[in-house]
Amino acid sequence: MKKILSLELASVMCIGLASCGTGTKTEENSGKTYVIYSDNSFAPFEYLDSTTNTYVGVDMDILAAVAKDQGFAYEVKNEGFDAAMGAVQSGQADGMIAGMTITDERKKTFDFSDGYFQDGQILVVAKDSKVASESDLSGQKVATKIGTMGTDYAESIKAEVGFETVNYEDSPTMYTAIENGTNAACFEDRSVVEWAIKNENLNLKTVGEVINPKEYGFAVKKGENAELIKMFNDGLKNIKASGEYDKILAKYGY
Ligand code: GLN
Questions:
Q1: According to the model, what pLDDT value does residue 82 have?
Q2: Of ligand 1's atoms, which has the minimum distance to the CA of residue 39?
Q3: CB of 112 within 8 A of CB of 222?
Q4: What is the pLDDT of residue 100?
Q5: Rounded distance, CA 99 to CA 167, Å?
Q6: Closest Cα partner for 125 from 199, 203, 213?
Q7: Rounded to 5°, angle at Cα 210 from 143 and 124
Q8: Residue 12 pLDDT > 60
């Protein structure tokens, strides 16, 4: 009786949520709507589709497929990368998916799912820039996006190369600062900046090789929402086995 009741409640909670699935529900997760934060502009992982006015992308589709497979309800808030990390740490969010690199440093404050994509950072400059390597950034200004691996990398070589860093909230404002000459360069995830150069016709180019390639993971606050990590991992395995994961990546050109 108790079980039937909670399943009914779960289906009530799911009304209006495109993400709701009919997969196996457990006593623990039924009825709860998880709050998941994400970046606000990080194509092809999450970006606003102006024709439908909804957020789409690899992360959005993987999350939807995993939630459907595991039968949990969620809502996404696309607030930006640093805001998402803050929301998870403060308990405002249950989890985040935002092209987030799994690192040992972040493991001190986050628990991560298994990896679902691999990428690293790359040097980005204006198309007509003469910068051919990191050492050419000497005396210049480098754009950084708060809280990201690109920022960590820029900070780690800044003293040696001798450049200044300028903080931005999101990827598009960082790109604009380079396009209009306010800043000389940034370090951005390769697949993201390549997508922007190609699909948004940006006046930028990448220089050199990928730096620190690592896995992206879904994250929760360390020690909390362990059931969400388990469901994400189980769902990820299932959508890989069913071919859905490959379909999602193919949809975005991978
Ligand atoms: N992968 C990078 C990181 O984890 C960038 C993520 C992002 O900007 N959304 O820092």
A1: 98
A2: 9
A3: no
A4: 99
A5: 19
A6: 203
A7: 30
A8: no
